[in-house]
Design goal:
This is DDE Tnp4 domain-containing protein. The protein is α/β, with parallel strands linked by helices and about 325 residues long. The protein has helices at about 5, 10-25, 30-35, 40-55, 65-80, 140-145, 150-155, 200-220, 235-255, 265-275, 280-285, 290-310, and strands at about 85-95, 115-120, 130-135, 165, 170, 175, 190.
């Protein structure tokens, strides 16, 4: 609870302190010195801003309603040639200090850090449409997907329940694109692995990668908040609040027309970062579900790829 002294600190100054901490990654002692206040005030102001953003402004991370989703689909098709694509999904990891308790080892990831995972779905402009954060860093991306509310919402037809499109004689439902660390599902298209002698598969993978660049740009943009530049010296709950707050701020800036202003090599860095970690192929294969669902997903991907080839997408 605030002391009377903290309550006397003007709101603008409290917000400025918190934003300075998130933007620069400065230690609380450095924030306190810059603003002429105590370390505890700097800590509380940062926590309060993050909590307020996550509780009062979470609509900035809401999945689009049908009319807005139609615009997302059109933009993905314009950018990548993929039709009926509703978003790009991927996971990234944010370093934290070693958590307390018996499950600390679960947070140890393949990069030899303790971390928490955030799973993002973004549109072609890298606006975050859905986020699930707080999973232990040692968890595989496919398992994170399965544990997320996103998976349940799609499986229960609460999301991606809009009209399908015809491609090569097959109905292609609304879907997301993800990398090879995720399972192939009727609503989740991942790249082809066996592309030899199949030009249409090579072409599909190229267009698929263009669509997935959107989520890599979102990762790179989030990491411009320097609070994520080193291991966060906070507990998991606070780390999740910081990730959520910066995700909301990211979307707010995009809404105001601020450019991402990213270098291409940053995208490669974060692509490599994720490829180093937790591609548990056995789990991916398990998560591809029943043979019937898997066969349907294979047919959908083939129809989508061949339909793009026939339509002359280049």
């Amino acid at each position: 609870m605030d002391t009377h002294y903290r309550q006397c600190v003007p709101v603008k100054k409290r917000v400025a302190m918190a934003l300075f901490r998130l933007a620069t990654g400065a230690k609380y002692s450095e924030v306190a010195e810059k603003f002429g206040l105590g370390e505890s005030t700097a800590f509380i102001c940062t926590r309060q801003l993050c909590d307020a953003l996550c509780s009062r402004f979470k609509h900035y991370l809401a999945f689009p309603k049908p009319e807005s989703l139609a615009r997302v689909i059109r933009k993905f098709e314009n950018v990548s040639g993929l039709f009926n694509c509703c978003g790009a999904v991927d996971c990234t990891r944010f370093k934290i200090r070693r958590p307390a308790g018996p499950h600390a080892g679960d947070y140890y990831d393949g990069n030899m850090f303790h971390s928490v995972i955030a799973q993002l779905v973004v549109d072609s402009d890298s606006r975050i449409l859905n986020i699930a954060a707080g999973f232990a860093g040692g968890t595989g991306d496919s398992k994170v997907l399965r544990l997320s509310a996103l998976y349940d919402d799609v499986q229960s037809c609460k999301l991606l329940n809009g009209p399908s499109v015809q491609a090569n004689g097959l109905e292609v439902p609304q879907y997301l694109v993800g990398d090879a660390g995720l399972p192939l599902l009727p609503w989740l298209m991942v790249p082809f692995e066996d592309t030899d002698f199949y030009p249409y598969k090579v072409h599909f993978n190229q267009r698929h990668l263009i669509a997935r660049q959107a989520v890599l740009r979102a990762f790179a943009s989030l990491r411009k908040w320097r609070i994520f530049g080193r291991a966060m010296s906070v507990d998991v709950k606070t780390a999740v609040s910081m990730i959520g707050a910066c995700s909301i701020l990211h979307n707010m800036l995009l809404h105001k027309g601020e450019p991402l202003d990213l270098e291409e090599d940053h995208l490669q860095d974060y692509s490599m970062h994720d490829s180093l970690i937790q591609y548990d192929k056995d789990y991916v294969e398990d998560e591809e579900g029943s043979s019937e669902d898997h066969m349907l997903a294979l047919h959908i991907r083939d129809a989508l790829a061949m339909g793009m080839e026939q339509n002359g997408q280049s």
